[in-house]
Amino acid sequence: MKNFILRLLMWIYINLIRFWLSPLLYWIFRYTKYKGRELPDKWDDIKDFEINYFHNEIALRSAYDYLSDPLGGVVDFSPREKNFFFLERKTSRDCDNWARMWWWYFNHHDIPAREIAILNTGQLFGGGGLRAHKVTVAQTGENGEWQLFDYRPIPDKEKTIGEVLKHNVVGYKEFVWVTGRELLLKK
């Protein structure tokens, strides 16, 4: 029952609150903190790369650093422009940025993909506080199996999204997950 309630609350947050809040925060930051900063023109150069080459171009720590969101994640937004990922900055390049890049990549290649929000229920009730993470899953298997893209491609493939999410790199053992509707609506 607790997982159902948590999943429902997370669905409400992701699909009714973050659905409009994330784009609003992005545009506020884009036209205040990053006003006048021209975006790099990199997406068109890498969008047709094979998965591993694409990964090499967006690789965590070797190509781009993880940059926390302001106020410990309270001010969290996903990019609305592909080239924003490559902009030199001091904050706001975290899990949802990599998840969005992977979603854009698969969308460009007409591969079914979902951007997924995961809530760590094990830590929530173990005194660790609220911990959430974003990833992308895509149907890359020959028989429609799902593959996880959690900053990087995870080689394991599974028949269901729930099973492939167990391979997450942040170590969530007990979790609930939801898909955001905004990305399901766009093509």
Number of strands: 5
| Element pattern in H and E | HHHHEHEEEHEH
Number of domains: 1
| Rough outline | globular
Oligomer: single chain
Helix content: 25-40%
Sheet with most strands: strand arrangement: 4-3-2-1-5
Query: The biggest beta sheet, please?
Result: 5 strands, antiparallel
Low-pLDDT sequence parts: none
End-to-end separation in angstroms reads: 34 Å
How much is the radius of gyration in Å? 16 Å
The whole-number mean of residue pLDDT values reads 90
Approximately how much beta-strand content do the residues carry?
Answer: 15-25%
Continuous helix count: 7
Structural class determined from secondary elements: alpha+beta
What are the salient characteristics of this protein?
187 residues; alpha+beta; five-stranded antiparallel sheet; 5 strands
Secondary structure elements and their pairing?
Blueprint: H1 2-30, H2 43-46, H3 51-58, H4 95-108, E1 113-120, H5 121-125, E2 132-139, E3 146-150, E4 152-158, H6 161-164, E5 175-179, H7 181-185
Antiparallel strand pairs: 1-2, 1-5, 2-3, 3-4
Tell me what the structure shows.
The protein is built from 7 helices and 5 strands; from the N terminus they run ααααβαβββαβα. With 187 residues, it is of the alpha+beta class. The protein has one domain. It has a 5-stranded antiparallel beta sheet. It is globular.
Give a concise summary.
With 187 residues, the protein is α+β, with helices and mostly antiparallel strands. The protein is 37% helix and 18% strand.
